[in-house]
Amino acid sequence: MTYQSFDDAAQQGHHATRLADLRNRMRQEGLDAFIIPRADAHQGEYVAEADARLAWLTGFTGSAGFAIVTQRQAGVFIDGRYRVQVKDQVDLAHFTPVPWPETRPSHWLREALPAGGRIGFDPWLHSRKEIEAMDSGLEGSGLGLIATEENLVDAIWPDRPAPPVGRARAHDIELAGETSADKRARLAAELKRDGHAAAFLSLPDSISWLLNIRGSDLPKNPVVQGFAVLADDGHVTLFSDPAKFDDDLRRFLGNDVSILHPEGLTPALLDLPGPVRIDPATAPEAAFRLLEQASTHIAPAPDPAILPKSRKNSAELRGMREAHLADGVAMVRLLSWLDQQPAGSLTEIDVVRKLEAFRSEAGIYDISFDTICGAGPNGAIVHYRVTQATNRRIGDGEMLLIDSGGQYPNGTTDITRSLPMGAPPPEAVAPYTAVLRGMISLSRARFPVGVSGGHLDALARQYLWHHGQDYDHGTGHGVGAALCVHEGPIRISRTSDLPLQTGMILSNEPGYYREGSFGIRIENLVVVTEVEAEAGRRMLGFETLTLCPIDTRCVDLSAMARDEIDWLNGYHQRVREALTPHLDDSTCDWLDQATRPLGI
Ligand code: GLY
Ligand code: MN
Ligand code: MN
Fold it and tell me: Rounded to an integer, what distance in angstroms lies between the CA atom of residue 127 and that of residue 285?
């Protein structure tokens, strides 16, 4: 079983014709521009082939971005991660990469179109918040946003794949820890309290959590694609292809969950009694318009499942701990194997394949995202994904960064380790030590209730800052329990002001990237727990879930404080004790070496 493809995704040849077809269609519809987002109606990280409109039209396959097509221009808006990739993938004779968010789409449109210009968009593919932002950016320009009845790309896509009909399955109570009926009653009570008749849900992971189901519509994210309406009596109407649900699953869901084909969503929204709670940040503009068309009272508020889903209960935590034990075994087998390979004998793809094989034996049914395996300069590309074209032979004395994770039936993992192949490169030692100290500082943090990820972010960066260094990504993201590896709403980053609460699982992943040379990232998952405090106070801290040695060959012990070394030794002792019973003798020997106490 292989999970990751190493194809060079660029698909040449047809994009000029498709662009011409789209422009014809725009003329027929009286539109001067049309917006093609990467997102689908559920705003997730992965889209089904049927929703890969941006890639089909332009050739660009990144996980974020959008195109705006006019009769004369076709701008492909991409963020900093994709500046290089976009140039390799799109035909530059027809498409123009546009740096985003530096260039605002409304500004670009003002330059591109004459006053009175009509800008078409598919209201299912944009959140209300996004459309409001675009609208305010266009204020006073004389340009108008026009919601189209039909997606213009779909109209010119003759062999567009059908939407996915992946089999759905029950997520058993031993793993979920709370019945769907109890979750629905809990959320329905909140609706009643606020005087809302129903809530509209459009995030597949929220719906999958609420109904205790998992799906196979998308790679890497084990969600059931669909929309749902939760009524204030706890009844859920799920709009998802009924073919995904067999009789056993229907029995599991019970009479208080009705399954309707997605075609039933529009009439249902037109007929829904209000007030309806709906999330402007995530729900499609089209859903708002349907409710407005029916003069239904709208109550804008966050998706009611988002926060409860982020606080894992004891059964979910048990599953996550078990998944991390299995994942630790796979990782240690890989790291031990890596140490036995002659210098210069491996490529990045060899490592990804071997890791997949070990994880497969550990029980995954999918990887949780495409493995980032970057040697030398490739390690400095934060979102690097190896392809046949970029595959690098890992040279003696090069740093190797491996960021990967698995989807196990009981949990989701995400781990990064960075290590030298052969002798440690001297220039990596100081930054490696600074990254490790920041990662330890966050792992050991103690903080009062009310503190947010924004307050803690600097703990992980402080030693890099001291040396005039930093990293251009967040320190941590929420992680789902047997769900999406990137889960909202909680984060550890400067802009996150949501207080951390017990049971939340986050990544702790500081890094350092020297362009053209090497990259370092060390990532563990942690769970927020209550810790001891003096009477009258409540304090929180983190327990580390990830079980895998942290490479010590690039550590400068003289730069580390005694209590940091003690933390590392204590962590390694825990890893050794947990994994040893599950390893063969030679891997145990390797683990003993890798976790031997330092500085004593
Ligand atoms: N690159 C996936 C992650 O660590 O979040
Ligand atoms: Mn990761
Ligand atoms: Mn991560």
Answer: 5
> For residue 599, is it within any domain?
no
What's the token pair of residue 177? 């820890």
The CB of 369 under 6 Å from ligand 1? The reply is yes
Instruction: Please check the confidence at residue 7 and state whether its pLDDT lies above 90.
Output: no
Looking at residue 43, its pLDDT comes to: 96
Residue among 509, 522, 524 whose CB has most ligand 1 atoms within 8 A, to mutate:
509
Same domain, 342 and 302: no
Contact present, 291 and 272 (Cβ < 8 Å): yes
End residue of a domain, out of 116, 133, 155:
155
Whether pLDDT at 13 is above 80? no
- What are 401-432's pLDDT values in tens digits? 999 999 999 999 999 999 999 999 999 999 99
Statement to judge: residues 144 and 281 lie in one domain = no
- Strand runs (DSSP E) across 2-80, as ranges? 33-37, 66-70, 74-78
Which residue reads 């040695």 in tokens? 549
pLDDT for the residue 12: 61
Q: Which numbered ligand comes closest to the C-alpha of 405?
A: 2
**Which residues does residue 570 pair with via DSSP β-bridges, in sequence order?**
none
Q: Are 350 and 419 part of one and the same domain?
A: yes
Compute CA distances 210 → 231, 239, 258, 299, 409, whole Å. Answer: 13, 14, 14, 20, 17
Separation of CA 344 and ligand 3 centre (Å)? 28
Give per-residue pLDDT as tens, 297-342: 999 999 999 999 999 999 999 999 999 999 999 999 999 999 999 9
Residue 203 belongs to what domain range?
Answer: 169-306
pTM for the predicted model, two decimal places: 0.97
Residues 243 and 392 in one domain: no
Ligand 2 centroid–CA 54 distance in Å is 26
Q: Give the CATH number for residue 322.
A: 3.90.230.10
Mean pLDDT of 249-273: 98
Q: What is the CATH number of the domain that holds 269?
A: 3.40.350.10
Q: Is 59 helix (H, G, I), strand (E, B) or coil?
A: coil
CB neighbour list of residue 477: distance below 8 Å, 6 or more residues apart = 486, 487, 490, 491, 492, 506, 507
**What's the rounded Cα separation, in Å, for the pair 350 and 192?**
55
In whole angstroms, what is the distance from residue 146 CA to residue 139 CA?
14
CA–centroid distance, 476 to ligand 3, in Å, is 7
User: What SS3 string covers 116-156?
Assistant: CCEEEECCCCCEHHHHHHHHHHCCCCCCEEEECCCCHHHHC
Does the C-beta of 564 come closer than 6 Å to ligand 1? no
**CA–centroid distance, residue 472 to ligand 1 (Å):** 13
Which ligand 1 atom is nearest residue 509's CA?
4
Asked if the structure places residue 2 within a domain, the reply is no
Of 290, 306, 322, which residue is a domain's last?
306
Phi, psi of 2 (to 5 degrees): -120, 145
